[in-house]
Amino acid sequence: MPPVDYLLIGHVTLDLLPGGEQRLGGTAAYAALAAQALGRRVGIVTSAPATLDLTALGTAVVVPAPAATTFENRYLPEGRRQLLHALAAPLTVASVPPAWRAAPLVHLGPVMGECAVELVAYFAERAAFVGLTPQGWLRRARPGGWVTVGTWEAAPQVLPLASAVVLSIEDLSGSWERAETYAALTRILVVTEGAAGGLLFRRGEPPLRFAASAVQELDPTGAGDIFAAVFFSLLAAGLSPEKAVQQAAQFAAISVKRPGLEGVPQPAEVVAMLGEGERR
Asked: Which single residue of 35, 166, 175, 260 has CA 20 to 30 Å from 185?
């Protein structure tokens, strides 16, 4: 296996669009491409059937599964609801190639509870930086496949081990009380609010509100994953949380102007915003 310096663990998904079209999605897809644009050598550990073409995402180790994790968004009178059609195989330490277990930056990005919680403790002892986007540990599939937000029982054990965590306020069902509870357990926590920006929590310091750039939004899918990949990469490279969160917000704003994976920043955009030195 080629060496990697950004290890991403989580399911690449199939997203069902109106009209029956399918496209790749999930944190693993968006964050991997964003990290590559930043100049990172990315390795993905995921699960999918052999028929799913992941070559566009780069180097991936795939745990075989009968079907890819598949989501559909339905727009009902009460708002957007998400439906789970299929779930691929669980991901554990054994799923990670030995050559990748020494990666300096590890990003755990479950979308539906697929990442074993033990992965956090394992890499907290080995990696210089462990970033979490734990929305998938908060999700539950109800009868019929409807996805809801539940309680994350392992949060008190997991959050103190992370270098940084990124969640959306939607992942927390709009609860700032829960956000503050998680922030008290975490070194660095970002809670995003889409076009409203978000809050940066740093242990021992007051929260810092950051703004999102005003842009014409076409498709917000994956913006939070791109934000997280940029934020984790810049933090691991030595930027302060305050600077890293502002840069990440700018890249997230770029992403919503294009559909799907086309929203991932291109290398030229990264150089224009960060400079060639910081991209490397």
From this structure: 35
